[in-house]
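sorry for the late reply, my laptop died twice this morning and i had to redo everyting from scratch. anyway the thing you sent over, i finally got around to it. pasting the sequence first so we're on the same page, its 150 residues, then the predicted structure underneath. double check i copied it right bc i was rushing
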Amino acid sequence: MAGLKKIQHLIIAGAFLFGGCTSKQDEPADVLNHFLDAMYKKDFKTARQLSTEDSKLFLDGIEMQSRFIHTVSFPDPDYYNREKMIFGNTSVTNDTLAKIPVTVQIKDGTIKPVYTLKKHGTEWKVDMGFSSQIEFSSPVNAAEPKQSTN
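ok and here's the structure:
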């Protein structure tokens, strides 16, 4: 009987510990991280699952581009490399729309896209559709051209 009580207590404790936890996929930044990882790995199936229906045309174009030039380069192969990114604070409006600014260091300088995510039911989805094109919080800071030293 004492063993049964211990098992009941473990089950109850487990329910409290894990019952209140939300999935990492529940937060906009986590969904964006998974999406960017999928794009970097050219895993377009996963990227489609993490994005809105309106993103289909964009993803089709990027996938086609990657088949012909063997890299996802928009505008640089590191564009989707999370190791080259610094994420800003997520702003959420009405629990249905999220914007996440990102700073990305690419070979030609620094770009600062602002990603939009929309909530569909209970899931956040990255929106790469034309109705919500990626905003840029500042223009690309291209590297200065090197001057010739003749």
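The two ends are 91 Å apart (CA to CA).
thats about all i looked at so far, will dig more tmrw
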